[in-house]
Specification:
Blueprint lengths: L7 H14 L12 H12 L7 H5 L3 E3 L5 E13 L5 E11 L3 E3 L1 H12 L2 E2 L1 H16 L3 E10 H4 L10 E8 H4 L1 H11 L4
Helix pairs in contact: 1-2, 4-5
The structure holds zinc ion (ZN).
């Protein structure tokens, strides 16, 4: 993936043109600072392009004797759909069975951010997180489940306001062993 940092000045100029094309007057008071705000906001929402899992982990992989399942659930997820540049958001659960190496707990969320803060489709985001966790830990199995609402469905198009999309990626023993997968899915289920 490209390690890209956007030119916020250029983006602001494009947003100003966009406002004009939408029939707005970019020089009216309420919109004066909008182009630079949007540029900053977009740079933040796509900052994952400048990151890699290796960079965010920064060595925070610890040796352990444990071969137990680790599950982190209800991780808030915000991303932008690549088809409409509109947000999708929800939550993510990540589980893995360690093979002697575990991640610092906050690092699971950082790996998710690294891919969520790009233009995405939910299916690819789910797989990329699973593969990155597998690569970082050498785990014998990894599972990721993501449940998101897509504003491009809620605000436009079919306007289905209550639909939630669920995607999952299962690797290693989570794919091959139904009991491991079932254990993960029951631990991943939100109690809220
Ligand atoms: Zn969309």
């Amino acid at each position: 993936m490209p390690r890209h940092r956007p030119d916020e000045g250029k983006i602001a100029e494009l947003v100003r043109k966009l406002l004009e094309e939408l029939g707005e007057d970019p020089s009216r008071e309420g919109l004066l600072k909008t182009p630079s705000r949007v540029a900053k906001s977009l740079a933040f929402l796509t900052r994952g392009y400048a990151e890699t899992p290796r960079k965010v982990l920064n060595g925070a992989v610890f040796t352990t004797g444990s071969d137990q399942m680790v599950v982190l659930r209800d991780i808030e997820t915000y991303s932008l759909c690549e088809h409409h540049l509109l947000p999708f958001y929800g939550r993510c659960a990540v589980g893995y069975v360690a093979r002697g190496r575990v991640l610092g707990v906050s690092k699971i969320a950082r790996i998710l951010e690294c891919y969520a803060r790009r233009l995405q489709i939910q299916e690819r985001l789910t797989s990329q997180v699973a593969e990155a966790i597998a690569e970082a830990t050498g785990a014998e199995g990894v599972g990721v489940v993501m449940e998101c609402r897509h504003l491009c469905m809620m605000m436009r198009g079919v306007e289905k306001q209550n639909s939630v999309m669920t995607t999952s990626a299962m690797l290693g023993s989570f794919r091959s062993d139904p009991r491991t997968r079932q254990e993960f899915l029951s631990l991943a289920r939100s109690t809220r």
